[in-house]
Every structure is written in C-alpha cells, then in structure tokens.
Amino acid sequence: MARTGRRPGNQDTRQAILSAARQAFAERGYDGASIRQIATSAGVDPALVHHYFGAKDKLFLATMEAPIDPGEVIPKIFEAGLDGVGERLVRTFLGVWDSPAGSSAAALFRSALQHEWSARMLREFLVTQVLRRAIGHLQLDPAEAPRRAALVASQMAGIVMVRYILKVEPMASMSQEELVHSIAPTIQRYLSEPLYSPAPD
Amino acid sequence: MARTGRRPGNQDTRQAILSAARQAFAERGYDGASIRQIATSAGVDPALVHHYFGAKDKLFLATMEAPIDPGEVIPKIFEAGLDGVGERLVRTFLGVWDSPAGSSAAALFRSALQHEWSARMLREFLVTQVLRRAIGHLQLDPAEAPRRAALVASQMAGIVMVRYILKVEPMASMSQEELVHSIAPTIQRYLSEPLYSPAPD
C-alpha cells in the first residue's frame, strides 16, 4: 500500500473508503471520480477522506496498492528535459523494478489483468499518474505527445512483461547497463525524433 | 484450439492427451517433455498422440489453444533476411493481432499470467515456438541472437499489453501504418545494428 505519511486511523473506515474509491475509479475513471462522491458512498465526510489519504492521486495510489509513487519518481527522469531522457528513464525504471518494490509491482500488474475492472484501473493509473505527468515535464508538440508517450509505454510495458513477469532469458538476467544501452535509444527516438520515416525520393 | 487438419477422434482420449501434455509442458518445459511420456501418462499409445495431434510442436499449440501457428507466420517475416525485417515483423504482427485471432490471443495472454504454470507455458511458447524459429531464419551472431530476440520480444509484448490488453489511447486506435512507421525502426535496430552505443571519443 502506498505510504501516505498519515496515521492509519480506524481500519474499518479506511477500508470502507478504499472500497468506495476502488469502485468509483473503476467505474468513472480517475478524472470522473471525485472525493465527494467517494465519501458519500463510503458514508463518511469528505474531510475524513482527505485526512486519511490526502489528495485524489494519493487515494488512487492507495486504492491500487501501488508500491511506488510516480509523483516522486517521474520528475527525476523528465525535469531535465529531452536531452538524455531515454537513458534516465530506462535506468530509473530498471532501478525500481529490480528493487523489492518491483516484485510488488509485478504482482499488481499480473492481478490487474485478470478482470476488466482491474485492467481499467491499471490503464487509468498508467495514463493519469504516469504518462500525463511525464508529458507535463517535456516540451512536446501537444498533437504528438500522447502518441509518443504511448510508444514509450509500449516498450517499457514489454520489459515488465518479458523481464519481470514471464522472466524470459536472456532478458531476465541481462544487466541494467546492458539494457540501458540497448533500450535507451528506442525511448530517446520515440520522444525526440520525427515519428515518421521520410518517404524516399 | 489450433487446427491440425486431422479428424477430431474420441473426445475423452483427446482431452486425456491434452491434459497430460499440459502438465508435461508446464513441468518439464517444451524441450523436456516427450510424446512418449505424455502418452504413458494419458494411458494411450504414442502413435495415437501423433495420430490426433501430429508432431510435438502441434500438440503444444493445441495445449496452449493457440489461435495462430507461428510455424506458418514466422517464415513469411524472416525468410527474406534482415533487410526490411522490422517493417515486415510489425506489419504482420499487427495484421494477426487486429484480426479475430487477436482477440483469442489476447485472452490467452491474459489468462496465462494468472498462474505460475500457465505463465511458464506462455514463456515456453514464446521462446521455443516464436523466438527460436525467428532466430533460425536469420544470420545472426549466435552470441547475440538470443539477446536481440528478447529485445524484439519486449517491444512486441509491450504492444500487446498497451494496444490489445490495456487498450491505452491513442495506441489502441492508431492505424497499422502509423505503428509500422513508428516501431519498425526499433525492431530493425534490435536485429541488425550494434547493440551498444559506441563510447564517445
């Protein structure tokens, strides 16, 4: 469960809020869900939701039982801009996934795929907590940014699948350095080079 | 279920063979499992396994309920060699996954992740039926080939995850042409260019 730095509070109340939040996020998506609705459906005051979980993004992290807070990791990768972003992204990503938090993340990824609603939660998490934050740090053409972010996500999700979930060799045991050198140029290209191959003369 | 072109035969016997085969492949892997052991454990003659399912790779496909036979698709992509392989791979891959067979494949992919044994089956399938066949068609340095294949697999598995399973926009609705142009250079680089960035002078 994501650490919020707040005291645990009444467990039944917390669970009621989490359960209402999970349903709200799955049904209405992250943007469509509101703290007010979640509080109403849990039978508590909205102030109590804020008190236990903080802002909506923290509540969403707690609902997902996310072992990592993208709000902490993503600025380190993207704040410095496009120069070298591929290498920073792959290196940071592997650092997190090769850590104990990575095992929790892999379990989350696996179980999220079992139901339509939990897959939707994972999609919402990826889009609103990861991709949207990342794009926010980069100076990209707004017409291209979501496509570039999705291409990056496809390469990184594939590493999760092949290295951490299916554990296909040799990728499961390749060193971080080896993977950084191999994959960083892909990410760099998806983010900073023209997406279309020029037509031959 | 993979079509073998053979008559269905006795359903109980077929199911007994499939069940024994599933266990054998999950426990011993594709290479470690033998038709003879599978027949013994199903209580039938090995000739009957051949009669119903054909060779071991076809039995494995049937066990996986694979909607696509990699033995038919892969030569079309790789037989012509490295020149243009990135484009042929992405185009063929999207053609298959955007077809009705793709929905079955996505369901298979999802359910395979739910258990350790079924994830192992999917890994075995990927390694022995897809990557090994693909490598077999290309003239690659044997010391690098498995790593190159795993890198390609990571990009393609990520497309499965983002486009077909999580259905993240805009990737879920990007045209095949757009994806071919964006992703083919990645595949081409993983297969045909030096994997390491040269150190600067």
From TrEMBL, chains A, B:
GO molecular function annotation: DNA-binding transcription factor activity; transcription cis-regulatory region binding
Pfam families: TetR_C_16, TetR_N
Ranges where the HTH tetR-type domain occurs: 11-71
Residues that span the membrane, as ranges: none
DNA-binding segment(s): 34-53
Source domain of life: Bacteria
Keywords: DNA-binding
UniProt xrefs under InterPro entries: Homeodomain-like_sf (IPR009057), HTH-type_TetR-like_transc_reg (IPR050109), HTH_TetR (IPR001647), Tet_transcr_reg_TetR-rel_C_sf (IPR036271), TetR_C_16 (IPR041678)
Identification of the protein by name: TetR family transcriptional regulator
